[in-house]
Amino acid sequence: MAPYEALYGRRCKTPLCWDEEGERKLVGPELVQVTVDKVKLVKQRLKAVQDRMKSYTDAHRKEMEFEVGEKVFLRASPWKGVLRKYRSDPSHIVRPSEVQLREDLTYEEQPVEILDSKEKVLRNKIVKLVKVLWRNHSTEEATWEPLEAMREKYPYLFMD
């Protein structure tokens, strides 16, 4: 018996070979085969889940075709990470003469008038809001904005 064996009573304990005194058992190939089988099973189940999710998604998709030169509007929803295509509607066109476009094709919204006001009660405070009508928008598109922010940015609206 080697000096190591005399001190510790065993020789080798690795995943490939478990060696006790008088007993030697090879577990590596069996362990590898079990692992390979489990990996195959996981891959099959992932593929099944992916196929099912694809079928759900495909059921809600609409096939859309566009001609060369046709104008479409892509709407980005950054909080969802989704891009949507928009079909042209003549009533949605904003005439360039009505809006001063910048070089990057954006424009600054300008408030026209305050339509209404209200107070929103939160847990610890009350927030004063005003309903703002914006230039180039209808009254249905008016938005509720914080009073103080509007007073600070657009004081001319409060000159009454």
Structure description:
By secondary structure, the chain is of the alpha+beta class. It has 3 helices and 8 strands, in the order αβββαβββββα. The strands form 3 sheets. The chain has a 3-stranded antiparallel sheet. The chain has a 3-stranded antiparallel sheet with strand order 6-7-8. A two-stranded antiparallel sheet has the order 4-5. The chain is elongated and about 90 Å long.
Brief summary of the model shown:
Helices cover 28% and strands 28% of the residues. The chain is of the alpha+beta class. The strands form three sheets. It has a three-stranded antiparallel sheet with strand order 1-2-3. Strands 6-7-8 form a three-stranded antiparallel sheet. The protein has a two-stranded antiparallel ribbon with strand order 4-5.
Q: Top keywords for this entry?
A:
3-stranded antiparallel β-sheet, 3 helices, 160 residues, elongated, alpha+beta
Low confidence ranges? none
Strand content: 25-35%
**Largest sheet descriptor:** 3 strands, antiparallel
What is the succession of H and E elements?
Answer: HEEEHEEEEEH
As laid out across the biggest beta sheet, the strand order is 1-2-3
What's the total count of β strands?
8
**Ends apart, CA distance between termini:** 105 Å
Question: How large is the count of helical segments?
Answer: 3
In helices, the fraction of residues equals 25-40%
Shape: elongated
Radius of gyration: 35 Å
Structural class: alpha+beta
- Mean pLDDT rating: 78
Protein name: Chromo domain-containing protein
Organism: Erythroxylum novogranatense
